[in-house]
Amino acid sequence: MKTILQYKYFDLCVQLAACLATVIIAIVGNDTALLMSFYFIVGPVQAFSSIINNVTLPEQIKHHTRKPYRWAVWILIALAVLATVCTGFVGAILMMAFSPFLAIWYLLITLKEVSLLRLIVADGIQ
């Protein structure tokens, strides 16, 4: 469990660094439009993290909102594709509007899993 906790700390740090990088890019560039880099930095980091965690994390460690989160992402992608095919930019706007909320949700899932793992490791459970 200690190894998993170390991985989860790394996962959390990478996600926080990606979020921070987005803000720094906007501040240094002195342009809030640079916050668009959020979608190209945080999105791939969390998508990769989600795939790795879904494949490798033991079921008893996965937070119960991980499955609804995954469904929300797939539904949003399907709606965005459908809306883009039917109306053009609506799908892109839909993705831009909901992605920050999904990113925060995923970050909270990771925090909760880290908290659970800290308790397990503190109790010495293998």
Could you describe the 3D structure shown?
The protein is 82% helix and 0% strand. It is flat. The chain is mainly α and 126 residues long. The longest helix is centred in the last third of the chain and has 34 residues, at 90-123. The protein contains 4 helices and no strands. It starts with a helix and ends with a helix.
Quick structural summary:
The chain has helices at 2-28, 37-56, 66-87, 90-123.
Alpha carbon gap, first and last residue? 6 Å
Oligomeric form: single chain
Tell me roughly what share of residues is in helical segments.
over 70%
DSSP summary: helix tally: 4
Count of strand segments: 0
Helix/strand order, N-terminal first: HHHH
General form: flat
Q: How many domain units? A: 1
Mean pLDDT: 87
How much strand?
under 5%
The main β sheet shows up as: none
Radius of gyration: 17 Å
Low-confidence stretches: none
